[in-house]
């Protein structure tokens, strides 16, 4: 074991206020103390005279979501109380992700009255030579390449899209409710446990039981109607609806459709759920071919044209 500051150079971030920054969809990631979305609260325009923190770092929240740790491959700005860790050793992105997990395992040491601003450096973590061997396997295949799978840019022209009923595209059903205590008794495993949460693709853990087949869309029918693609077999909590495609659905098409459905979340609230009945009555607009049928190839190629699509 080694001290964290023996493996990383630990620097404080920019200590900026998001409210004073100009948000920009194509801007620089603004890393806050949140435990969601890789720590990124928004993207902001370049701030004159303030250099972003260099990429290839680990961001660590020292208050708020204490020790929420994320690998930041690109330059980024930070809010207050965010530490930036730069490796003294040559570490792959997968190994950096490993250290993110190890750092977060120490969160039990902290609370509102004991924050990590002065006690982060001496945390003991495994020394680089002692990293689990299986990480080498993933390091060889996992990339953080910003380049898209397709080299040509595709524009969206929503004015030419056509409306389709969800029930014509999917078989809409519920899922079998599996209580979390039952899964915990069975034990950890490889199958996702899909819940109504709108983070981490709806997944709240991995256990050794699956009740549903994969390559479907799931929709939360308890909160905001969050939609996600479940590529693998899974188990589910209560209020998770399932959209089984009536067409061959690739992961790229699934991500396109999930994004379209999530743009419709404004339709739902605590008193108006995304129930099976409402989903069956719902329609969405999609790109179409000359014969008026959904253009699945266009949807797939569009997702492949986006930055980072090579990592999907």
Outline the structure in words.
The two termini are 34 Å apart. This protein is α+β, with helices and mostly antiparallel strands. The protein has helices at residues 4-7, 93-104, 134-141, 166-169, 180-186, 251-262, 276-281, 296-304; strands at 2-3, 8-12, 23-31, 40-44, 57-61, 69-72, 77-78, 82-87, 124-125, 162-165, 170-174, 188-194, 203-207, 216-220, 227-230, 235-236, 240-245, 283-286. Helix content is 20%, strand content 26%. Helix 2 (93-104) packs across helix 3 (134-141) and helix 6 (251-262) crosses helix 8.
Sequence-ordered SSE layout with sheet pairings:
Elements: E1 2-3, H1 4-7, E2 8-12, E3 23-31, E4 40-44, E5 57-61, E6 69-72, E7 77-78, E8 82-87, H2 93-104, E9 124-125, H3 134-141, E10 162-165, H4 166-169, E11 170-174, H5 180-186, E12 188-194, E13 203-207, E14 216-220, E15 227-230, E16 235-236, E17 240-245, H6 251-262, H7 276-281, E18 283-286, H8 296-304
Parallel strand pairs: 3-7, 12-16
Antiparallel strand pairs: 1-9, 2-8, 3-4, 5-6, 5-8, 10-18, 11-17, 12-13, 14-15, 14-17
């Amino acid at each position: 074991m080694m001290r964290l500051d023996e493996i990383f150079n630990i620097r404080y971030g920019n200590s900026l206020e998001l409210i004073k920054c100009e948000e920009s969809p194509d801007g620089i990631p603004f890393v806050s103390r949140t435990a969601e979305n890789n720590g990124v609260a928004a993207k902001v325009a370049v701030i004159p005279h303030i250099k972003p923190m260099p990429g290839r770092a680990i961001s660590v929240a020292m208050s708020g979501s204490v020790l929420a740790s994320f690998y930041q491959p690109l330059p980024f700005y930070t809010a207050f109380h965010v530490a930036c860790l730069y490796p003294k050793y040559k570490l792959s992105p997968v190994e950096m992700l490993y250290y993110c997990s190890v750092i977060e395992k120490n969160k039990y040491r902290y609370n509102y009255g004991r924050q990590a601003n002065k006690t982060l450096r001496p945390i003991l973590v495994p020394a680089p030579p002692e990293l689990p061997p299986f990480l080498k396997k993933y390091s060889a295949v996992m990339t953080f390449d910003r380049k898209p799978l397709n080299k040509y840019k595709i524009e969206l022209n929503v004015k030419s899209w056509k409306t389709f009923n969800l029930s014509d595209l999917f078989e809409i059903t519920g899922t079998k409710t599996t209580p979390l205590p039952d899964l915990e008794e069975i034990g950890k495993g490889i199958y996702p446990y899909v819940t109504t949460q709108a983070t981490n693709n709806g997944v709240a853990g991995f256990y050794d039981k699956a009740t549903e087949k994969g390559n479907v869309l799931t929709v939360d029918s308890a909160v905001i109607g969050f939609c996600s693609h479940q590529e693998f077999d899974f188990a589910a909590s209560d209020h998770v609806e399932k959209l089984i495609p009536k067409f061959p659905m690739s992961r790229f098409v699934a991500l396109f459709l999930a994004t379209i459905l999530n743009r419709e979340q404004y339709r739902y609230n605590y008193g108006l759920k995304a129930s099976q009945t409402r989903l069956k009555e719902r329609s969405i607009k999609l790109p179409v071919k000359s014969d008026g049928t959904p253009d699945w190839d266009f949807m797939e190629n569009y997702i492949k044209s986006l930055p980072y699509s090579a990592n999907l």
